[in-house]
Amino acid sequence: MQARLETDDLQENLSRVRALLREAERLAELRRALDALHAADIAYILEALPLAERLRVWDLVKADRDGEILVEVSDAVRESLIASMDSAELVAAAETLEADELADIAPDLPAAVIQEVVQSLPAEERERLREALSYPDGSVGALMDFEHLAVREDVTLEAATRYLRRLDELPNHTDQLFVVDREQRLKGSLPLARLIVSDLELDVARVMVPEAVTLHPEDPAEDAASAFERYGLVSAPVVDGQGRLIGRLTVDAVVDYIRQRSADSQLAEAGLLQEEDVFAPVLDSFKNRWAWLAVNLVTAFIASRVIGAFEDSIAQLVALAALMPIVAGIGGNSGNQTITMIVRAVALGQIQESYWMKLLAKEIGVALLNGVIWGTLLGAIAYALYGRIALGGVMALAMILNLVLAATMGVAVPWLRVRLGRDPASGSSVLITAVTDSGGFFIFLGLATVFLL
Questions:
Q1: Cβ-contact 371, 404 below 8 angstroms
Q2: pLDDT tens digits along 73-85
Q3: 285 with 294: CB under 8 angstroms?
Q4: Same domain for 291 and 165?
Q5: Domain stop point among 266, 295, 327
Q6: What angle (nearest 5°) sits at the alpha carbon of residue 327, between those of residues 325 and 331?
Q7: Are residues 416 and 432 in contact, defined by beta-carbon separation less than 8 angstroms?
Q8: Are residues 297 and 436 in the same domain?
Q9: Claim to verify: residue 223 and residue 371 sit in the same structural domain
């Protein structure tokens, strides 16, 4: 099976699939083309096709590959594929998966299918599945791979080598063997690089490396991702409360988690409730988007009322109508810069409870500096355009105050959501834009009313 393709190759394969779909007599050729692709590449193609074409391609995929492809596709697209399959097909697809993979798609499968699959599993796999499902999303346990290689500390390197040679293949991303005692308690690790170059007569205990990074299934996945990035890990052991080795975390699972977390953060900032199939039915997309749009409608109405309260001022000095969007727009952009930086820092675990006030002071300082520089520039432009020095002064002062407001809210919004146990990214751009729009209009028009009229 071919390895995962580059973006240009993916686009080329997608174009080829679309072309073959339009010609009924070439479906056999399309089936052969799909058989040659990696499951991840087929998933990419399925995500890029409208529903009708997606299901036609899905019907051409070999049944024994259904499970691995369901693991690769996005949650939203997986739902559409599962909806097109009957119970027997779903059971057959699920039975081809390992326990950790089955746990990934279990929330999308009908309860009856899960029950039938569980009953068909060997006792050890059934226990693994039960354990995998017991860990919450965003924990190391939810990402953990049960497949790992372990050797005893009292055996020789020659015995460890013979053990490896008896295997058909090594688990993916195997860069080390985990060293355990008779009770399966973790003692250290044996990097394959050391195994290759060391004297085979030596005991494992003399060559192994005391394990520096050890994870627990309850650890947050964010902490694990930071450890992988900091130490350049390929895999890391996962142990229970008694120090017994129960699995491992691999770099591919960490990368997938980081990518998904980044995508979720971008969606949340835009006010989307969850990941959405690009070709989802209109009603499904509406359900995903309406909540924050409703919030946006309310905040936009508030902004319009703020403007309405200064109708007389605008009528007397029409220049205010031309200048006020500048103050609000720059404030919104500055606030989004602040909140994006804060949300990222929260996700990386870089902000402790005692640091919020220092962070607020720093952001206000940045806002004041930006306000003085850009406010002075815009004030000079306003004076040049309208010939009123007081208007330029109001413009500069309004810019400074709105940037300070944007910085304050850029820190306060994620802080408040963290204190409430909510995702700090959720709807953040909607909220910050609402505040800087209404606040910017009020500050600018209010100052203009006081000093110009």
A1: yes
A2: 988 889 899 999 9
A3: no
A4: no
A5: 266
A6: 115
A7: no
A8: yes
A9: no
Do 217 and 333 lie in one domain? The reply is no
* Tokens read off for 51: 């529903």
pTM of the model: 0.69
CA 428/CA 444 separation, integer angstroms: 24
Of 83, 107, 134, the position where a domain reaches its end is: 134
Decide if 277 is inside a domain: no
Q: What share of the chain is helix, strand, coil (3-state, %, to 5)?
A: 70, 10, 25
Q: What is the rounded CA–CA span in Å between residue 450 and residue 453?
A: 6
Q: Is there a domain that residue 199 lies in?
A: yes
Amino acid at 320: L
**CB-based contacts of 223: which residues, under 8 Å, 6+ apart?**
349
| Strand-pair category, 245-250 with 235-239 | antiparallel
Q: Is 1 helix (H, G, I), strand (E, B) or coil?
A: coil
3-state secondary structure 240-279: CCCCEEEEEEEHHHHHHHHHHHHHHHHHHHCCCCCCCCCC
Residue 141 corresponds to which tokens in the numbers above? 């346990």
8 Å CB contact between 402 and 327 = yes
CA–CA distance, 337 with 92 (Å, rounded to integer): 48
Would you say residue 84 lies in a domain?
A: yes
Token representation of residue 20: 């073959």
Question: Total structural domains in the chain?
Answer: 3
Each residue of 407-437: pLDDT tens digit? 999 998 888 888 887 777 776 777 888 888 8
Comparing 51-60, 127-136, 189-198, which segment has the lowest mean pLDDT? 127-136
Residues 243 and 352 in one domain: no
Q: Is residue 275 part of a domain?
A: no
**Which is nearest to 65 in space by CA: 46, 92, 25, 88?**
92
Radius of gyration of the chain (CA): 29
Query: 83-140: per-residue pLDDT in tens?
Result: 999 999 999 999 888 888 888 888 888 888 888 888 888 888 888 888 888 898 889 9
Residues 334 and 261 in one domain: no
- DSSP at 49: S
Which sign does the torsion angle of CA 152, 153, 155, 159 carry? positive
Whole domain around residue 52: which residue ranges?
7-134
307 plus 213 within the same structural domain: no
Nearest to 342 by CA among 329, 369, 360, 328: 360
User: Per-residue pLDDT for 4 more than 70?
Assistant: no
The CATH number given to whatever domain includes residue 385 is 1.10.357.20
Asked if residue 296 and residue 414 are part of one domain, the reply reads: yes
